[in-house]
Amino acid sequence: MFEMEELMTGTDAVAHAVRLVDVDVFAAYPIRPYTGVMDRLARFVANGQLDAEYIIADGEHSQFEIGKHASSVGARAFVGSSGTGWLYAMEAIGVTATDRLPVVALVGNRALDDPGAFGVEHNDALLVRDLGWLIAWASTAQEALDNTLIAYRVGEDPRVRMPVAIAMDGGYLTHSEHLVKVPSKEAVKKFLPPYSLGDRVLHPDNPISIAPQANEDWVMEIRRQNYEAAKRSRGVIIDAYREYESVLGIHYDNPFIEELDVEDADVVLIGMGSASVVARSVVREMRNEGKRVGYLKLRWYRPFPSEEIRKSLKNVRSVGILDRNFAMGAPDNQAITSHDIKSSLYESTNHPIVTDFIAGLGGREISRKEIRKMFNLMESGRTEKVYWIGVRE
Amino acid sequence: MTEQRARNDDEFKDAGLYKGVHSVDLEEFYTSGHRTCQGCESALVMRGFAKVAGSRTVVTGATGCMYVANTSYMTTPWIVPWMHTQLAAGGASAVGMAAGIKALQRKGKIPKEKINVINFSGDLGAGDEGLGGISGALQTPYDLLIVIYDNESAANTDIQASGLTTWGAQTTFTPSGSKERIMQKRWKKNIAAMMAIGHPNVKYVATACATFPATDYLNKVKKALAAGGPTLLHTIDPCPKGWDYHPRYSNILGELAVKTGIFADYEIINGRVKYTYDLRKRERLPVKKYLEKQGRFSHFAEEDYDYVQSMVDEMWEEWELPGILPIKGGLSVERE
Ligand SMILES: Cc1ncc(C[n+]2csc(CCOP(=O)(O)OP(=O)(O)O)c2C)c(N)n1
Ligand code: SF4
Ligand SMILES: [Mg+2]
Questions:
Q1: pTM of the full structure
Q2: What ipTM score was computed for the predicted complex, to two decimals?
């Protein structure tokens, strides 16, 4: 069932997944910190471990357009970028979604320019949250590999047909090594059916016109179809994890979120990505001290797990959001994740206090001490709606 | 010279070139359903490449008149499979399709056969925003054809100047005013030659006019598709709306663009230049004959005609390769 278990970086884990799904076309353009995945894939091609068309693009806009159009002729495609490169591709990112083409892209989260910074910030991936991309967030290399395999299955499912972004913290996950179980090709074949666009494929045997000028006559119906697909993706994701477990024995309690001691917690911190590793360890430590704290990690950002969040937080008094992003001038000056959490909680019977912690921007480390500080502020009753943690005032 | 020409034609002896208008295929792959203006030559460019390429073809069209006016939902004129691509994505769209098809055929996921991969992009899309992407496409090993249809403006957005608009032309971005008679002060980019010179691996680059000389454009499409690897065509397309003339004169203007030499008509086949209409050997008509028939030049003073004429003269008389290589004074390399 498994080919190997090895220490590898987050980007290498994704590269293995891309190799295992037998991707047909991938296009590369360099930018830290996602690039490692392309370096690795190039080596797979050079060594005959992957049979794919490999294109070194002239820029991220072309890179993502290449992925989109390869996908339109029925080829399984992979692309990726980070930070400002991801923004450079933005137009192509938009149409990949509106054309409903299930390209999978790695976004190695990176601070947006200016000023230059290689480190993680989540704004790049979050900018596409409403465009029609599904977004999975990895916090370990194993999760990155699993997410990628699952992404192809979910995105290509005829009920969904949407592109999927694999978000991953730059540096902390792209470049750190974890022990990863790499499935065998046979197992992946069992899990992932061949990619078929059916009667939407662009091929001489299927002479269709894709994305003609529609205007107000039809755009609303087309948006609605996309909206329904995004809604359906929830069920398809649940099925995919079930199948993933039955083929590979890799178990996730819940596809969308991961809870640590949330059930009987008074205060809960919510976050995603690599900071979860630190947060979880602080929660364990504080539990040993008798504190009723918990941590909730988001694994999928689109579709957003509102139901899970309501259920998970139904008895919680105070919620903190670990926001590794900024949202200038946003409601209550809180950052992006808070708004999605708060709007989910509006439909809940329980309305905990929500405090936003903006931290770790530009790749700044989020320390155990700082996580503790967040819990302490939540426990003792906060005086502000937003705290910038770890910033020089 | 004659020996070289014979060699050039020989290369395409299997391409089934048309010999006269009566040998042109009747079947169309771009038909009714579009709503381009009467007299639109860009539409003829579409019709021509689709006819030549035939049914085993996939096409992408960049945003522009040939997207918006061509493919209203449910009334597509395309018999061949067609997909929209973004204004600057012409090159990448062709690469994506060609790479996808190649991988799927090699892996046995779809049957092996020759499928023509064609993108068309306008002068703004290809000549400005999408230049880098087309350069990228021309560096790939894939069989693909980029057709730059040049109506000399961003026609779809109401006729704005592009990098390929003729000097002096009035457009909505370059209106003639009481202080500035000439607002369009950029000289037309030498797009086809730029691409040919910059990408020495490319086997076929040509310029063309859809209607003159008859069948020439169609045969150039045939050659481009037969040449192998990435290829490029640049057509000059009279546009009644943007150039401001009666639709009945489109073909005449196309012919004049070639005969006045303002648009150099040539092929570059494996690095060898072949002038389709060689104005080094024929009489060149005065450029004014072409310009004065178009409302976009109605503000021209005599000195403006003279200026354009002087630039065209320089191109044909002083350039090392007229229309292609603006190096003057011979190619001898100075030695220290
Ligand atoms: C990225 C982007 N910028 C601007 C536009 C608006 N736009 C649509 S068509 C067009 C003009 C294209 O001009 P050209 O490529 O010459 O084609 P034509 O309309 O002349 O046929 C423009 C600017 C767009 N669709 N996309
Ligand atoms: S504006 Fe020009 S290019 Fe556009 S459809 Fe009319 S004639 Fe053709
Ligand atoms: Mg134009």
A1: 0.97
A2: 0.97
